[in-house]
Specification:
The N and C termini lie far apart (about 75 Å). The chain folds into five domains: about 5-60, Helix hairpin bin (Helix Hairpins, Orthogonal Bundle); about 70-310, DNA ligase/mRNA capping enzyme (D-amino Acid Aminotransferase, Chain A, domain 1, 2-Layer Sandwich), CATH 3.30.470.30; about 315-410, Beta Barrel (OB fold (Dihydrolipoamide Acetyltransferase, E2P)); about 425-570, Orthogonal Bundle (DNA polymerase, domain 1), CATH 1.10.150; about 590-660, BRCT domain (Rossmann fold). Helices cover about 35% and strands about 20% of the residues. Helix 1 packs antiparallel against helix 2 (about 30-45). The strands form seven sheets. Strands 2-11-10-3-9 form a five-stranded mixed β-sheet. About 35% of the residues are buried. It has 24 helices and 24 strands. It is of the alpha+beta class. A hairpin with a 2-residue loop joins strand 4 and strand 5.
Length: about 650
């Protein structure tokens, strides 16, 4: 193949993957694979500059902006970084930089390269005005309302700030939050996110900001754009951000000797897996802004910064078997059983294949040698088949449920097989675990092992059976003593009086999560009102939508559900209504209570604030809206006065609530 044809093919391939990565959040290849393709195109264009065309990915900064959000023009283009994957390339960057500066005595700042989604925040006179994605580097997407739901992004900067200040950084999802989010995805019968980057991108670009608010995203600053503030260095800029209450990365070192940079790069690789967020390498920047100006930039990337990434860890292993898991809603998920192998710091013995279309795409068989990757993924990914022996066994889609042997169906518009037997033990176990979990009915002691035994023994065949359990039932289980049984029975009894929204969420209605359950509980007030609602009435609620409305309607009109709800009522389940807000003035504001109050206890005052949409904190910061100070208020009051935070008396606080009772 001649160089011109190869270059054209690479351009088409890179734009294809650009679109999947930036616009659709559905990457098909890893960052490492993409960078190899990109590097090859750059090399071809370097050898023959006539191959460089205006539409080449090397001449663009990022992906195209989505039409789902209003366009935002960046005052200063949001550039991306060049990547290197080995020490030889790292030294080459340093030598080029030293040669241009005619010196090797300059400061370099090194930070972790967080794997998330780039975002810019524009403040005017200290107030957050706009948040935007990178887009194509010149035009991004307005995601202001979604960004405002990220708790560590301040809506107002600390102190007095006049003028324009645009900061840029990475929106990401912590690792532990990704685990919880994927549990929620499973509860809602949705596919899990492959990694934190996909989850962050999918969360930040939701059309409904309520969904974004459910996900504990975080933001760390790594640069700035347009600014009326002046800085001499990157570390000076970071110090300013800290003073303004803006979040910055905790991983940061300053070096003047490049050997120290290399040593840090080597050492940091072993610590990568211990970080609370996904990082795929380090970013190095020349600290001095005067020197950055001398070094300049290409049309796409700054010459004063470089990403020093680690190649994604990949290993070969053998597919020993395929297991078929059954989800709470009956979805059948194929899971590859692998020959144990070390990858990404852990021992891997299995990998999800998501659905049978993925098996067909890979042309995967039992006995195949496969290449797997775990680069930030919660679940390892099977990349490709390396070798398929002649005796490899074809994977056949099951005709019946692997647990209950019931019929499987594939609903229109879906790729998943689903068991439709409501009495399937696998589904019952999942449903009971969900019903008893902390975010729903919170039945302490009714964990996975206990649920499995109760279902296996036939003591629990449906959710309402939980409230029929006796001491005899529990004492029949393994490792159960009198005290443990009594505690569980007391927890079950206590759960009969949970708030309505917790019960709605516990029922496991498809497409209904915790936030939507709360919306339904507030809108309808009682379970009876909700069960009588029509699809049209449900769909009119802004947060619900047509798909969820039909799901809710179909659920409550199923004969078996009507029988179950009657069972709950006969067994003494009396749900408490949500306390209605008496004021809209506290919504979203953070309060701190200090000193001795006269009319309320501290706990009563805090609960009252929460019931009316406020946040309560135990410490005063720039994010605090007001401090409610009682008698003998101490250091918290003093700090609030120093920061210029509003000070309220107990009566002032109560007055915010009383006017709209």
């Amino acid at each position: 193949m001649d160089k011109k044809t190869e270059a054209e093919n690479l351009k088409k391939l890179l734009w294809h993957h650009n679109n999947l990565y930036y616009n659709l959040d559905k990457p098909e290849i890893s960052d490492y694979e993409y960078d190899l393709l990109y590097s090859r195109l750059k090399e071809l264009e370097k050898q023959d500059p006539s191959l460089i065309t205006p539409d080449s990915p090397t001449q663009r900064i990022g992906g195209k902006s989505s039409s789902s959000f209003e366009p935002v023009e960046h005052i200063v283009p949001m550039m991306s970084l060049d990547n290197t994957y080995n020490e030889e390339e790292m030294y080459a960057w340093y030598e080029r930089t030293s040669k241009t500066l005619n010196s090797n005595n300059f400061e370099m700042v090194i930070e972790s390269k967080i794997d998330g989604l780039s975002c810019s925040l524009t403040y005017m006179d200290g107030i957050l005005k706009t948040a935007a994605t990178r887009g194509d580097g010149k035009i991004g997407e307005d995601i202001t309302e979604n960004a405002k739901t990220i708790k560590n992004i301040p809506l107002k900067l600390s102190g007095e700030n006049k003028g324009l200040f645009e900061v840029r950084g990475e929106v990401f999802l912590p690792k532990d939050a990704l685990v919880k989010l994927n549990e929620m995805q499973e509860d809602r019968d949705l596919p899990p996110f492959a990694n934190a980057r996909n989850a962050a991108a999918g969360s930040l670009r939701q059309k409904d900001a309520h969904i974004t608010a459910e996900r504990p995203l975080k933001f760390y600053i790594h640069s700035f754009g347009a600014s009326d503030f002046k800085f001499d260095s990157y570390t000076g800029f970071i110090d300013k951000c800290k003073n303004l209450g803006l979040p910055v990365s905790p991983i940061r070192e300053v070096f003047t000797n490049f050997e120290d940079v290399i040593n840090f790069y080597q050492k940091f690789k072993t610590e990568l897996h211990n970080l609370p967020y996904d990082a795929d390498g380090l970013v190095i920047k020349v600290n001095s802004f005067a020197l950055q100006k001398i070094l300049g930039a290409t049309a796409k990337t700054p010459r004063w910064a470089e990403a020093f990434k680690y190649p994604a860890e990949r290993v070969k292993t053998i597919v020993k078997d395929i297991n078929f898991g059954v989800g709470r809603t009956g979805v059948i998920t194929p899971v590859a059983v692998l020959e144990a192998v070390k990858c990404g710091g852990v021992t891997i013995t299995s990998a999800t294949l998501h659905n049978f279309d993925e098996i067909k795409r890979l042309n995967l068989k039992i006995g195949d040698t496969v290449l797997i990757e775990r680069a930030g993924e919660v679940i390892p990914k099977v990349l490709e088949v390396i070798n398929s022996p002649t005796d490899a066994k074809t994977i056949i889609e099951p005709k019946v449920c692997p647990v209950c042997k019931g019929a499987l169906v594939k609903e229109e518009g879906e790729v998943a097989l689903r068991c439709i037997n409501p009495n399937c033990q696998a589904q019952i176990k999942r449903k009971v675990r969900h019903f008893a979990s902390r975010g729903t009915m919170d039945i302490e002691g009714l964990g996975e092992a206990v649920v499995d035994q109760l279902v296996d023994y036939g003591a629990v065949k449906k959710l309402s059976d939980i409230y029929n359990l006796t001491l005899f039932d529990l004492m029949s289980l393994k490792a159960f003593a009198d005290k443990k049984a009594d505690n569980l029975l007391n927890a079950i009894e206590e759960s009969k009086h949970r708030p309505l929204d917790k019960f709605i969420f516990a029922l496991g209605i498809r497409h209904i999560g915790a936030k939507m359950a709360e919306t339904l509980a507030r809108h309808f007030g009682t379970l009876e009102n909700l069960t009588k609602a029509s699809i049209e009435e449900l769909a009119k609620i802004p947060e619900i939508g047509e798909i969820a409305a039909k799901s809710i309607f179909d659920f409550f009109n199923a004969p078996e559900v009507k029988t179950e709800l009657k069972n709950f009522e006969l067994l003494g389940v009396k749900l408490s209504p949500l306390k209605q807000k008496t004021s809209a003035l506290l919504e979203g504001k953070t309060f701190v209570f200090t000193g001795e109050l006269e009319q309320l206890t501290r706990e009563q005052a805090q609960n009252l604030a929460k019931e009316n949409g406020a946040k309560v904190s135990g410490s005063v910061s720039s994010k605090t809206y007001a401090v409610v100070a009682g008698k003998e208020a101490g250091s918290k009051l003093k700090k609030a006065q120093e920061l210029g935070i509003k000070i309220l008396s107990e009566n002032d606080f109560l007055a915010l609530i009383k006017p709209v009772k």
